[in-house]
Specification:
single chain
């Protein structure tokens, strides 16, 4: 079950990142974050009311609040990086945040077997190589790398926090709702401050109509991200966090493949080799 839900997380996050990267080429990154999360809040609010999940409120929800504060910073940084650099380069670097939940799992006493340790090492190397990251180049490229590293460790912190925010399925609905409400509050506050300082929330001359035109894509990004958080939490609660985190972090491979299929971004030899190593690491982890 851990492997299945973790791989589902990778697919969902990969597609959400691809969609978010495309949207930030038409809208400011912070606007994409806030609007997509508002859609998620509306849907999750309906789920919480329908299932009666509010009855499971407890101290563990502070983990969801913390994840909700870190999340907008990570998403804004990541979407901005995706808009500045090729998705096939930025997305794999974003997976370096996997060290945060893996370190948390080890600190809490998890001890994967030798085969799983080998799978973790192979998968992480493969994920990074899948992007063929280039750390030299124009100032824009360096800025994209810095933003991606900020996002990476933010995503890793969210993964570590959300795994402790609930202990049941209905509790997970409530935790995700609290996380997204916090996302919207933090992101919305930041967006308001930016507009007060003269940075427009929408492209000049477009008006609100561009939001309506892009609403289906924004909804997909927000809901896919929520679903990924949910499947990751289930994976982490039903198996070793170290395994769930690494398998979930295969999402850059999905993003790179989507960029290759839709945007025709060419995969270099090192990227193809990295994807192969990532899949090999997945097999080792699943077998362990």
């Amino acid at each position: 079950m851990t492997a299945l839900f973790a791989l589902a997380t990778a697919v969902l996050w990969g597609l959400a990142d691809f969609g978010g990267g495309l949207l930030t080429r038409r809208l400011p990154a912070l606007t994409v974050v806030v609007v997509s999360q508002i859609v998620a809040v509306i849907v999750l609010g309906a789920v919480v009311l329908t299932t009666g999940a509010w009855r499971e409120a407890g101290p563990q929800l502070w983990f969801a609040v913390a994840a909700g504060l870190v999340g907008p910073v990570a998403m804004f940084s990541f979407y901005k990086a995706l808009a500045l650099g090729p998705m096939g380069v930025v997305s794999p670097l974003g997976s370096l945040g996997v060290v945060v939940p893996v370190a948390a799992g080890l600190a809490l006493g998890e001890r994967p077997g030798a085969g799983q340790f080998a799978g973790i090492a192979v998968a992480v190397v493969g994920i990074v190589l899948a992007g063929g990251p280039e750390l030299r180049g124009a100032p824009v490229r360096r800025r994209a790398v810095v933003l991606t590293l900020v996002a990476a460790f933010g995503f890793g912190a969210v993964m570590a926090l959300i795994a402790h925010a609930s202990s049941s399925v209905t509790g997970l609905f409530l935790a995700l709702f609290v996380q997204r409400v916090t996302n919207v509050a933090a992101g919305g506050g930041a967006l308001w401050l930016r507009t007060r300082r003269g940075t427009p929330a929408l492209p000049e001359g477009s008006g609100p109509r561009i939001l309506w035109a892009l609403l289906p894509a924004l909804a997909f990004v927000g809901l896919a991200d929520v679903a990924a958080n949910g499947t990751y939490s289930i994976a982490a609660q039903n198996g070793p966090v170290t395994v769930a985190a690494v398998l979930s972090s295969l999402y850059p491979v999905v993003t790179a493949l989507a960029a290759f299929a839709v945007l025709k971004e060419r995969l270099r030899a090192v990227q193809a080799a990295g994807a192969g190593l990532a899949l090999a690491g997945t097999v080792l982890l699943a077998a362990g």
